[in-house]
Amino acid sequence: AQSVTQLGSHVSVSEGALVLLRCNYSSSVPPYLFWYVQYPNQGLQLLLKYTSAATLVKGINGFEAEFKKSETSFHLTKPSAHMSDAAEYFCAVTYTGGFKTIFGAGTRLFVKA
Amino acid sequence: DSGVTQTPKHLITATGQRVTLRCSPRSGDLSVYWYQQSLDQGLQFLIQYYNGEERAKGNILERFSAQQFPDLHSELNLSSLELGDSALYFCASSSSDVVPSDTQYFGPGTRLTVL
Questions:
Q1: What is the predicted pLDDT for the residue at B9?
Q2: Which of A1, A69, A78, B102 lies at a CB distance of 3.0 to 4.6 Å from B94, suitable for a disulfide?
C-alpha cells in the first residue's frame, strides 16, 4: 500500500539556517511526489513536484527537493530560512494507475529570529 | 489566489444537522477533489469528480455525499453531523483525471464546527 511518512511533526530553525524537512514514501510503482505548503488559515499551495524528469527539483521560494529512489525519499531543503517560511509543509504522493493523492501528516516549520 | 473558490468560509451547526459545502474549480479545470483536514486524522482524501462523474473515493463516510454539476462546480453534502465531523474541508481542482503528476490547486477551505 502506498504511504507517505514525514519525520518530525515540528521542526525549528534559526533565520538564515538550513531547512531540511524529511519525507519517505512507500510505493510499489513509480511515484509522483509533491511538496505543498500551508500558511495559517489558507489552503495548500504547491511548492514543487517530481514527475521523473529530473531527480533534483527546484520549486518556488528557494525550495528544492531531491528524489532518491534507493532511499525512497524526497526531502525538502532550503539553504537559508526566512521568517516568512514559517508554515506547515506536506509531502504527498500519487502514483501511476491511481487517482488518489496521499498526504503525509505534515511538518510545522518554526523560524526563530 | 489559486482560482478555486469555496463557500461558506465558516459554518457552525448542531449535531444531527445537514450542511452543504460549495466549490467552484479554476477556470478550465474539470477535476474536483474534496479533502477533510482535522487535527487527529490529518489531510484525508474524500472523493474526486471529473466532468460530472465520480472518479475515485477515499475515506468518505456514508453520511457524506458529493456531486459535480454541469457548470463544474461541486457540492459536498454532510448529513447527520457528529462532533467528530468538525474539520476544515478543502476543495481542489486540476485539469485532468488520469495524469497523476497533475497539480491540484486548493481552495481556502470551509471550517465546519459541529456543536
A1: 95
A2: B102
- Burial per residue of B72-102, b for 16 or more beta-carbon CB atoms within 10 angstroms, e otherwise: bebbbebeebeeebbbbbbbbbbeebeebbb
Shortest alpha-carbon distance between residue A13 and chain B (Å)? 23
Residue with cell 495524469: B99
One-letter amino acid at A72 equals T
pLDDT of residue A107 exceeding 70, the answer is: yes
pLDDT score for A96: 64
**Chain B: closest CA distance from residue A72 (Å):** 17
Compute the average pLDDT of residues A48-75.
91
For B105, nearest residue in chain A (alpha carbons):
A45
Q: CB-based contact (8 Å) between A49 and chain B?
A: yes
- Counting residues of chain B whose pLDDT is more than 70, the rounded percentage is 97
Q: Determine the pLDDT at residue A98.
A: 59
The nearest CA of chain B is from the CA of A58 a distance in Å of 15
- B26 chain-A contacts, CB cut-off 8 A: none
The rounded distance, in Å, linking the Cα atoms of B51 and A62 is 35
Asked if A105's CB is within 8 angstroms of B107's CB, the reply is no
Question: Distance between CA B21 and CA B112 in Å, rounded?
Answer: 9
Residue that wins the pLDDT comparison between A34 and B100: A34
The two beta strands, B64-68 and B53-57, are: unpaired
* Interface check A44 vs B, CB under 8 A: yes
The predicted structure's pLDDT at residue A37: 96
